[in-house]
Design goal:
The complex is a heterodimer of chains A (about 280) and B (about 230). Chain A has about 280 residues and is an alpha+beta fold. In chain A, about 35% of the residues lie in helices and about 25% in strands. The chains are: A alpha+beta (about 280), B mainly alpha (about 230).
């Protein structure tokens, strides 16, 4: 067997989300004149522009299908460093409230998570030398991990003026202790909120349609009709600037056509959060 | 008040006598149940109508886990089906009712339309089910394409000339959605996104502890550009 065949054989069991645990080194490039991290600042004194930082291990973020391809055809694997967090932060990360980090079910006892702010590329022969630790062992776990990666990389970038326009909706979503509000509570109980921009996000004006997707087993919310709640929600996003008119529909997934779903974007609540925090 | 429009697309055709718009070669029997009272139009036998009355609608064959849900008889479900089958836009649907688009949105969201609109909804849905070309784009095209005499079926719908539309366009292919057994609870949960309450307020701060060691990377630059 050739060395390449050995590498392919060693990679065969690896899946996205699998890990190597133990002392490893993460390499990144920096500018010595403006080092932005402690690692870069230390290395800058030696006049170089590449430094390695010690990390707790790596988690594979490449897709499983790319891992399975031969190393001749697909020689690279992308990995993110493992970092240690407190137990409290671990639970928050598990709930998806720290999008920088990816929860890894197989490592929860070690309080290790993936730091998605950094990604490194290695050749498959490097991975072939690692002892594999399964990160996700069920389909739901694998989906959650993939969703965390997508959330970090694949969110639609809503225009800045839309973020400002939807600010009040975000405020209501955040106000868990808002005494007034069945409307806020109902909003938080939704399955998903999606937005359609017609003809497109780049146009002026933009006809905005909010899809408030409810769960099928809730034909009303605490005795209140969804149409009544819709009336309240739409008052939080009155037409302004480019965004006019503004419409909304409360629906279940069964009510939507595939086209409705594809032609809309999930409301980027993370992005709204980051904007409001800055 | 609720409106159930029972579709019997798969039942035998019953010849209809002269209508106000001329003789129809083919006709569909359709049943409108308003306020719990069964009102029949050009039906055959009582036994046949009761069988039709039990016929499940497409809306029941969902993956939601609901069976014979009351929601299939609601205006919001009817609007959803009308939209899905016809391919008409919200604006076009609003024009058929002579209302603002917002009204149709609210009916779709659960607000009860008035009696006249509810009845019209039932009739429109019956027509759309009858002429359904099998997919939305084709059905919409059929409604929007002028015939040789320049008449657009959509305009006739807006004028309540339902029989004429059915006569001009004829019976469509209908739809037969495959019966889909529901996914397991865990499979459905795995596909559900985190609810908005969990997403909003997520922070992007740093909470991990660095190991705190670094070293210089040994590198060699390789330039393979031609």
């Amino acid at each position: 067997m050739t060395a390449r065949n050995d590498v392919d054989a060693a990679l065969a069991p690896w899946r996205q989300g699998d890990c190597v645990v133990g002392a490893q080194w993460f390499v990144h490039r920096f500018t010595p004149e403006v080092p932005l991290t402690e690692v870069a600042a230390e290395a800058a004194t030696a006049g170089v522009d590449l430094a390695e930082a010690a990390v707790r291990g790596f988690v594979v973020v490449s897709q499983t299908c790319d891992l399975a391809r031969s190393c001749t055809e697909r020689p690279y694997v992308e990995v993110a460093p493992l970092v240690e967090v407190d137990r409290g932060d671990l639970r928050v990360i598990e709930r998806g409230r720290r999008p920088r980090y990816a929860f890894i079910p197989g490592l929860q006892n070690s309080h290790l998570v993936g730091d998605l702010d950094r990604v490194m590329t290695v050749e498959k022969a490097v991975v072939a030398t690692w002892t594999r630790k399964a990160g996700c062992t069920t389909d739901p776990e694998a989906r959650d991990f993939a969703r965390a990666l997508a959330r970090k990389r694949a969110r639609f970038a809503f225009p800045d003026d839309f973020t400002a326009f939807a600010n009040k909706l975000q405020d209501r979503l955040q106000a868990k202790h808002d005494k007034q509000s069945d409307e806020g509570e109902a909003l938080r109980a939704l399955r998903e909120i999606r937005v359609r921009a017609d003809p497109s996000w780049d146009d002026d004006p933009v006809d905005v349609l909010f899809w408030f997707l409810r769960n099928e087993d809730e034909p009303d919310f605490k005795g209140q009709g969804w149409d009544q709640l819709l009336e309240h929600w739409l008052k939080w996003v009155p037409a302004s600037g480019r965004f006019r008119p503004v419409h909304g529909v409360v629906a279940t997934l069964d009510d939507l056509t595939a086209r409705d779903y594809v032609e809309s974007d999930p409301l980027d609540l993370d992005h709204l959060s980051a904007r409001s925090a800055s | 008040m609720s409106v159930h429009v029972i579709d019997n697309l798969r039942q035998p055709v019953v010849p209809l006598g002269t209508s106000g718009d001329g003789v129809l070669e083919r006709a569909r029997d359709w049943v409108i149940r308003i306020g719990g009272t069964l009102a029949l139009r050009d039906t055959t036998s009582t036994a046949a109508s009761s069988r039709w009355a039990e016929e499940p609608t497409d809306a029941q064959q969902t993956n939601s886990g609901l069976v014979a849900s009351p929601a299939t008889g609601t205006p919001s479900a009817a609007i959803a089906e009308l939209r899905r089958r016809s391919g008409l836009t919200w604006d076009q649907l609003a024009r058929l009712f002579g209302v603002a688009r917002r009204s149709v949105h609210f009916w779709a969201s659960g607000k009860a339309p008035n009696t006249a609109h509810e009845e019209r909804l039932g009739r429109l849905l019956a027509v759309i089910r009858y002429i359904d070309r099998g997919h939305a784009r084709a059905t919409r095209a059929a409604l929007m394409t002028a015939s040789s005499d320049g008449v657009i079926p959509f305009d006739l719908l807006a004028l309540d000339r339902f029989d004429e539309v059915m006569g001009r366009l004829g019976a469509g292919l209908g739809r037969s959605a495959p019966v889909r057994p529901p996914l397991s609870e865990s499979a459905r949960a795995a596909r559900k996104p985190p609810p908005p309450a969990e997403r909003v307020g997520a922070l992007h701060d740093t909470v991990h502890r660095e190991v705190g060691q670094s070293r210089l990377a040994r590198t060699i630059k390789v330039d393979r550009t031609p």
